Amino acid sequence: MSTATVPATTLGDTKVKVLKLIGWAGILGAVVMIIGGGVVWGVVSSQLAAEKITVAEDASFLAGAPVVGPFSAYAQADIINHHALAMAGDKTYAELDKEDPLRATVMNASFLRTSLFTSVVSFGVSAFAIGMGVLSGLFGWAILTLAPAWPKKTTATGVRA
């Protein structure tokens, strides 16, 4: 087993301190992002669960599953669109005549899809925050690991203690 020596650093005391602080900031940012992303994911999931929505049985995937996550929310939004288009003869809300009695139903379907897609985006942003938190923590840890030790304090006589 060989022991490698770390080359002497040419960084001054101030740069070493700044480098260490950046490392700690990365780790602190990681904690905030991971917790924040997890909390948002949990809130969105619990709010969807409270609505007691189940993916329609004729959905292309996750049929019958409770809508509590990004994939089930997407599946339900997709089947709502399918049903609305089938009911309106493949016309969207904007394409229907203003006097068409189906227009209100298609509009409600559009609103439901938008709400479900908003939750899908929220899950995505939460996952992104958690992922970036993990990366930030790894970068902070790497900086702290590779940076030289904190400079020793200088005594009144100018000698490092």
TrEMBL record:
Keywords: Dioxygenase, Membrane, Oxidoreductase, Transmembrane, Transmembrane helix. GO terms for molecular function: dioxygenase activity. It comes from Cryobacterium lactosi. This is Aromatic ring-opening dioxygenase LigA. The chain crosses the membrane at residues 21-44, 116-144.
